[in-house]
Design goal:
CATH superfamily of the largest domain: Metal-dependent hydrolases
Bound molecules: zinc ion
Number of domains: 2
Mean pLDDT: 97
Shape: globular
Helix content: 25-40%
Radius of gyration: 21 Å
Strand content: 15-25%
Number of helices: 14
Distance between the termini: 34 Å
Length: 449
């Protein structure tokens, strides 16, 4: 028999560990993992000297579609995903309209389905959304739900009462609740202090949005979640104190998971002095001690997910922050650089390749109901694969990125370790530095029951 593709001689990360193996792919699926005697194939990809990983599953992206075409769209965002070894994106609900009704969910699906180069899923909005809508959006295939505790996001911001009620509902529906854990009350009051002090410099964003905003919100969510069966997931964790709370809740047997991003793993608040509004994110960048705690937690399992939190804004929007940091929005272009930066971290012994695969592919796939279709190289799984060259140097330049924004918080950073080929369901969509996937190839991912 002749199969579609065999990937030969690569050092492959399997659930059982790293081995030299050949991966046999046919009709979009992995049908064999063999040491030798692989079948004939239409295409043989020689991965000698390279590592072969399952495609990354980025469970926290804002591709701005529909609603903000000047910032990003699903085609540009997933071109960037392809180049960054991300084979499945899970998009956040703060689009326009927000993903909070069955109608909005289905509209978004039909709009972005024509554009996506990689597979995609959606997170529904919880916030103050009526329970009837949450049930319908869940039924339609949302992989999880998101609530904010800060007022900026209108219907996505939850009062404590609704937070509790939605936790009960999501426990029943068996869908995780993802929380942006910052206290709206504390954030607003500290911001008033900053304004009263006449502070508009980049460091003010860190000084006047201290860790307690995040720690208090994390504790509150953990406390409420303990009354329910919900799987609580804390997004973009930054503060050592919040990690301590998640660790404690896990030790008490609670179903609580944590997530962080390269922003917090690689930058500290000192970065604000160098990079100003380009590095502005919420929660803000923290201290070296917080950063060390995040690495420790990512490695010991307390933090189980790495996600990019790709949240593009235009150059003009970001650069307003040079005059007054509070005029710049928080978030940046990061989906394409997350894997290279993490491969560099592997090269620098900050994390193992196996652990990187767990936190950036396996765990997010499991959490979002996509496992075992996604998230590991194994028999019967979708042939979503990224081949990486651990020795290939990179030098990040905004102008070279695939996304429509040519600005990045990581401008001029250098390192080693690059994805060189990306396959989604057996189709090569990125090769030799070129994105060759087609818009509309990506398919909507319904979570498994
Ligand atoms: Zn986000």
């Amino acid at each position: 028999m002749t199969v579609d593709i065999v990937i030969k001689n690569g050092l492959t990360v399997l659930p059982s560990g790293i081995t030299q193996s050949n991966i046999v792919i046919d009709k979009g699926k992995i049908i064999g993992i063999v040491k030798s005697n692989e079948p004939k194939a239409d295409r043989v990809i020689d991965a000698a000297g390279k590592v072969v990983l399952p495609g990354m599953v980025d469970m926290h992206v804002h591709l701005r579609d529909p609603g903000f075409p000047e910032r990003e769209n699903f085609e540009s965002g997933t071109r960037a995903a392809a180049a960054g070894g991300v084979t499945t994106v899970i998009d956040m609900p703060n689009t326009v309209p927000a993903t909070v009704t069955l109608k909005a969910f289905n509209e978004k699906k039909s709009i972005v389905g024509k554009k996506s180069l990689v597979d995609f899923g959606f997170i529904g909005g919880a916030g103050e959304v009526p329970q009837k809508d949450i049930r319908e959006v869940s039924e339609a295939g949302a992989t999880a739900f998101k609530s904010f505790l800060i007022a900026r996001f209108k219907e996505l911001a939850a009062s404590d009462y609704t937070l509790l009620k939605h936790m009960e509902l999501l426990g029943e529906l068996d869908k995780p609740l993802l929380v942006h854990a910052e206290s709206g009350v504390l954030v607003d009051k500290f911001m008033e202090e900053a304004v009263a002090a006449g502070r508009t410099d980049p460091m003010a964003h860190c000084e006047f949005r201290p860790p307690i905003c995040e720690i208090e919100a994390t504790m509150r969510c953990v406390t409420l979640a303990a009354e329910t069966d919900v799987h609580l997931h804390i997004c973009h964790m930054t503060a050592a104190g919040a990690v301590d709370i998640v660790e404690w809740a896990q030790a008490m047997g609670q179903n609580v998971t944590g997530e962080t991003s390269t922003n917090y793993l690689l930058f500290t608040q000192d970065t604000m002095k160098e990079r100003g509004p380009y590095a502005k994110v919420d929660p803000p960048l923290r201290t070296k001690d917080d950063q060390l705690r995040l690495w420790e937690a990512l490695n010991d399992g307390t933090i189980g997910v790495l996600a990019s939190d790709h949240a593009p804004y235009t150059k003009e929007e970001k650069e307003r922050g040079f005059d007054n940091i509070y005029d710049a929005p928080s978030g940046g272009v990061v989906i394409e650089t997350t894997l290279p930066l993490m491969l560099d971290a592997v090269n620098n012994d900050k994390i193992s390749l196996e652990r990187l695969v767990e936190v950036f592919s396996t765990n997010p796939a499991q959490m979002n109901g996509l496992y075992p279709r996604k998230g590991d190289i194994m028999l019967g799984a979708d042939a979503d694969i990224v081949i990486c060259d651990m020795d290939k140097a990179f030098h990040i330049k905004g102008e070279n990125l695939q996304t429509i924004q040519k600005i990045t918080p990581y401008e001029d950073m250098k390192g080693k370790g690059m994805p060189v080929m990306t396959l989604v369901r057996g189709e090569v969509i990125f090769e030799d530095g070129q994105v060759i996937g087609k818009p509309g190839y990506g398919s909507f991912q319904m979570p498994l029951e």
